[in-house]
Structure formats: structure tokens, C-alpha cells
Write a structure and sequence with these properties.
This protein has 180 residues and is α+β, with helices and mostly antiparallel strands. Helices cover 19% and strands 42% of the residues. The protein is flat.
Length: 180
């Protein structure tokens, strides 16, 4: 009986070591944010705005443990109204993808004059390293009217459509009138 227990004990230990080795191999082959590095993005809520309208830039860092927004450059004609955040979200999916942390800031501007504005890259500190966003472009007009934006016309709209039924719509856009 004693010899039998020793064999079962050794077999159990062997299977446990084999299982741990397989788990370590799976973890090593899993893409992680540490291998690919954190992803930094910045996106405006719109590319075309009117004077005194709020324009929000969403700055997002995905795959970093720590992140802070260090600098939002000043742009003449595009005053900074507020910076909100960071909002930190931790998500856990499966064993293969593991934990993902996302930091998000909302940077709100309010244009006070017309023109084309280039928002220089914003600086962030991500896991101890300084990184920057891409530069962003914003067009600001006095007021938006359909006449300035052109004309969009839809042709061939179906009379009835059932839920889930595919259909085709043709549209035609005409350019805005030149020179007033």
C-alpha cells in the first residue's frame, strides 16, 4: 500500500509540473500590452465646428498601468475650457487576453474665431515615459448652413423596408457654390 501511495504522489506531482509548464507556455505566447506597448490615441468630436461651440478631444491610453496628461498646448483662437479625467477602466476578458487598462481624458475647446486650427501633439507620461499624441486639425466657421456645405440628394429610396432587409440608396452630392 505504501509503494502505491508513493507512485500516486509522484504521478500527481508530475501532472502538476506538466500543467504549470503548459500554463506558462500559454502565457508566454499570449500577446500582451507589455509586448506590444501602450496605444495612445486622440480624436476630435468633430472636424468642422462653429464659433462658440464645444469641441471635445478624447485622449486615450490603452494598455498602460499608469498614465497622466502632462501638457495640452495653447492654440490662439481655440481656448481650453476644461480637462476632465482620467477615467480609468479595467477590463478582464479571458485567460488569453488577460487584463486591459484604459485611461481616457476629455479635453474641451471652444473656438472664438473662424479659421483652420492645428492642435499640436499633447504630451502624456505613460508608465514613466513621455509620449505624444498626433497633431489634430479643426476647421471653424461662423455658422453652418446647407448652402455652404453643398447639397445632398437621395435617389431610389424604397417605399417599404422590413427589419433586416438590405436595400440600396444612391446619393448625389453637389459642391458648394464658389465665391460670393
Amino acid at each position: 500500500m505504501n509503494g502505491r501511495m508513493e507512485i500516486i504522489g509522484r504521478l500527481t506531482l508530475f501532472l502538476l509540473v506538466l500543467l504549470c509548464g503548459r500554463l506558462a507556455e500559454l502565457h508566454a505566447n499570449t500577446p500582451s500590452s507589455a509586448q506590444t506597448g501602450p496605444q495612445v490615441t486622440a480624436q476630435l468630436s468633430t472636424g468642422l465646428a462653429t464659433i462658440k461651440s464645444d469641441v471635445t478631444c478624447m485622449v486615450q491610453v490603452e494598455g498602460a498601468n499608469r498614465a497622466s496628461l502632462e501638457d495640452v498646448p495653447k492654440v490662439v483662437g481655440l481656448p481650453l475650457i476644461k480637462v476632465s479625467g482620467p477615467s480609468v477602466q479595467d477590463s478582464f476578458s479571458s485567460f488569453r487576453t488577460g487584463r486591459k487598462r484604459t485611461h481616457v481624458w476629455a479635453v474641451t475647446f471652444q473656438p472664438d474665431k473662424e479659421g483652420e486650427f492645428i492642435i499640436p501633439p499633447m504630451t502624456l507620461k505613460v508608465d514613466g515615459k513621455l509620449v505624444t499624441t498626433r497633431e489634430l486639425t479643426l476647421s471653424v466657421v461662423k455658422d453652418l448652413t446647407g448652402q455652404e456645405l453643398g447639397h445632398l440628394e437621395f435617389e431610389g429610396l424604397p417605399e417599404f423596408v422590413f427589419e433586416g432587409q438590405p436595400f440600396t440608396v444612391r446619393n448625389r452630392r453637389t459642391a458648394p457654390p464658389q465665391g460670393n
